[in-house]
Amino acid sequence: MSEARNYFRDVETLDNGNVEAAYARWAPIYDLTFDVLLKPGRRAAAAAASGARGPILDVGVGTGLELPLFSRHTQVVGVDLSEPMLRRAAQRVRRERLDQVAGLVKMDATRMAFPDATFACVVAPYMLTVVPEPQAVLDELARVLRPGGEIVLVNHVSGKDDAVALFEAWLDRHMAPKLGWRPQFPWSIIGDWIDRNPQMKLVERRPLAPFGLFTLTRIERVSAERNECAKSAPLELALA
Fold first, then answer.
1. Which DSSP helix (H) or strand (E) runs through 138?
2. Looking at the domain assignment, is residue 232 inside a domain?
3. More confident of the two residues 166 and 35
4. How far is CA 219 from the centre of its chain?
5. Taking Cα atoms as reference points, which of 146, 3, 11, 121 lies closest to residue 66?
6. CATH number, domain at 144?
7. Does residue 117 have a pLDDT over 80?
8. Is the pLDDT score of 109 beyond 50?
9. pLDDT tens across 23-64, in order?
10. 239 part of a folded domain
11. Sheet holding 214-221, edge to edge
């Protein structure tokens, strides 16, 4: 629990204003900088969501790099806090004719405008390190998830007491607002949240390429009526 406590003690060093300003700067070069490095995790997240029997929510969709990786038979809604990133995602949707994308919307991930239990799967790749309150975001992801559905996360998870962890802690203290994300992210942020929410069950946790730098996490919202989660109502959302 001490890792999480230390994280939240310093969380005021990053706020939504920092994030929006940072990603306005990142937007023109984001794909060039991060596409190759982060593609294995995006591919793993899209594959994990491919079996969803209903609409998929992509939280922190950014420039939409993972949108082409979702099956054409799915229905995906993307949300992000950054308008410059969303504009690039919309261009990608039009350019690549991504008919599976039902809408792109600007939203704060801690206060989304969707009704409870709207989505069969919620995907949030490389996103929890960006937000000031990751456990509040997890609460909101769980709220909009249907019983029987899954939250799919891809995230860097920090090690303990090694040189890399010390460097991440230094970056956190000095660079997080400029970067727009927190380099240090202990597993206890996610693990403690699962432990506090008995309806949430850890399904899978595994390292990803390159070099196990990132972790895929799948969390199920447990339901005694699993057949109900398969029912899907189409969403009517305008593309941004």
1. helix 134-144
2. no
3. 35
4. 13
5. 121
6. 3.40.50.150
7. yes
8. yes
9. 788 788 889 988 998 999 999 999 999 889 999 999 999 999
10. no
11. 101-106, 76-80, 56-59, 119-125, 145-156, 214-221, 200-208
Find all residues with CB under 8 Å of 67, minimum gap 6, and list them.
Answer: 58, 61, 76, 78, 89, 92, 93, 96, 98, 100, 101
- Cis before 115 (ω within 30): no
Task: Give a yes or no: residue 44 inside a domain.
Answer: yes
Residue 209 structural domain: 2-223
Q: Output the six-digit token pair for 158.
A: 């920090």
- Read off the pLDDT of residues 205-224 as tens digits, 9 standing for 90 and up: 999 988 888 999 999 999 75
| Tokens (6 digits) for 40 | 């294995």
Residue 77 confidence (pLDDT):
98
204 — phi, psi (to 5°)? -155, 140
Q: Would you place residue 185 in the very low, low, confident or very high pLDDT band (cuts 50, 70, 90)?
A: confident
Listed residue (60, 16, 22) closest to 38, CA to CA: 60
Residue 228 lies in a domain: no
Q: Is the pLDDT of residue 71 over 60?
A: yes
Tokens of 60: 């922190």
d(CA 225, CA 228): 6
- Positive or negative torsion for Cα 16, 122, 47, 84: negative
Domains: count for the chain: 1
Helices 16-26 and 30-49 pack at an angle, to 10 degrees, of 110
